[in-house]
């Protein structure tokens, strides 16, 4: 049983299952009557979104897979010019975050060098898979540009050293989860766009981008 000390939610992970897969994850909430199953686990990781609020700048939604479940989680970034704190990272591997920041500077041309950068994964989740790379980059770019990410948009891709967006495992499961939760747009690698063009699940728009520059031009374009 896993979970944050002061959180009411608990994750039950199987180590060995004689008659079934160990690739299963149970999500429960502690109530007055005991543990209750959570039907939509992504709700515990997503805060209340207000599309007309300035605070959305620096917030992006990633899609992770844990066991047989796909979850949406929020990644927050804050860029502060001239801050004495270089980087403060919570919930993301430090080396991975450093790489993504360096790629943004080199390949996307954003001058982050003189900014203190704070990264946080909401609800104490630890992001360990590369599928969250693009959401991390999008959150940092959003805060630096002071441009909120459009409401109802999610990000799924690995970021390479050349700034290119790369495929990740179980992409279809991730996209279907995003669609079921009512999101209208999903940024994926350009190579995956054609694969899902016929699906357009539940009216969701699949936007393919080749690299970080293209993602920035797509997400943060002025109308």
UniProtKB/TrEMBL annotation:
Keyword Hydrolase among record annotations: yes
Tagged with keyword Protease: no
InterPro entries found in the cross-reference section: Ribosomal_Su5_D2-typ_SF (IPR020568), Ribsml_uS5_D2-typ_fold_subgr (IPR014721)
GO molecular-function terms, A-Z: serine-type endopeptidase activity
Taxonomy, superkingdom: Eukaryota
Matching Pfam families: ChlI (PF13541)
Record-level GO BP terms: recombinational repair
EC numbers for this chain: 3.4.21.53
Enzyme class: hydrolase
Keywords: Hydrolase
PANTHER family, sorted: DNA REPAIR PROTEIN RADA, DNA REPAIR PROTEIN RADA-LIKE PROTEIN
Protein name per UniProt: Endopeptidase La
């Amino acid at each position: 049983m896993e979970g944050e000390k002061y959180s009411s939610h608990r994750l039950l992970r199987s180590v060995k299952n004689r008659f079934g897969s160990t690739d299963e994850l149970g999500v429960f909430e502690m109530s007055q009557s005991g543990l209750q199953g959570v039907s939509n686990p992504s709700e515990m990781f997503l805060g209340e979104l207000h599309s007309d609020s300035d605070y959305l700048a620096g917030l992006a939604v990633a899609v992770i897979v844990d066991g047989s479940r796909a979850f949406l989680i929020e990644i927050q970034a804050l860029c502060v010019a001239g801050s004495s704190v270089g980087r403060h990272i919570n919930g993301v591997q430090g080396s991975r975050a450093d790489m993504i920041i360096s790629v943004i500077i080199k390949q996307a041309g954003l001058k982050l060098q003189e900014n203190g950068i704070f990264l946080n994964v909401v609800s104490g989740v630890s992001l360990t898979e590369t599928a969250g790379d693009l959401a991390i980059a999008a959150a940092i770019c959003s805060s630096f540009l002071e441009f909120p990410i459009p409401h109802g948009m999610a990000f799924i891709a690995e970021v390479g050293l050349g700034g290119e967006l790369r495929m990740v495992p179980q992409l279809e499961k991730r996209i279907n989860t995003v669609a079921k939760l009512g999101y209208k747009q999903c940024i994926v690698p350009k190579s995956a766009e054609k694969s899902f063009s016929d699906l357009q699940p539940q009216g969701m728009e699949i936007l393919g981008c080749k690299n970080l520059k293209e993602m920035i031009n797509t997400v943060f374009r002025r109308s």
